Amino acid sequence: MVTGGPLVHGIDVARVEAAIRAAEGRTSGQIRVAVSRFYFWGDVRIAAEGAFARLHMERTRKRNGVLIFVAPRRRRFAIVGDVGIHSLAGDGAWTAIAELLGREFRAGDLTGGLAHGIAAVGDCLARHFPPDLDRHANELPDAVVVEGGGPIR
């Protein structure tokens, strides 16, 4: 297990990024995590859709990117899948993953919730988009992005 990385609002960034790399190793799909830097009262889903666009999540070859957007101070999140994965997985996949994340967030384990949620997203992507052995491209960065502040590094 990777630990000891920078913390953003109690989230262990190194552990989350390791979970992204592990999940993406099983699929040609792409996963990103964006964390809201500021406390806000807005709609988390709308903020997630805005982050999806700003991060150019639609730029994957198979339109199989998934964003997990987190507002840690509110313990709220949204999962947004691009059209390629959403057309195959549907709302049911995101609902099941959201229930998993929600349980752990309510228990106060934001990092664990993200790690398990990322693994579940990876499982979903792997079912529909197995690894592309001819192409080992990481189409989107694995770094956690802090909305309003850019990548952590």
Give a short summary of the structure.
The protein is of the alpha/beta class. The chain has helices at 13-24, 44-54, 83-106, 110-128; strands spanning 7-8, 11-12, 30-36, 65-71, 76-81, 145-147, 150-151. The longest helix has 24 residues, at 83-106.
Architecture overview:
By secondary structure, this protein is an alpha/beta fold. The chain has a single domain (about 10-150), classed as Diaminopimelate Epimerase, Chain A, domain 1. Helices cover about 45% and strands about 20% of the residues. Strand 6 (about 145) and strand 7 (about 150) form a beta hairpin. The protein starts with 6 loop residues before the first strand and ends with a strand. The mean pLDDT is about 90.
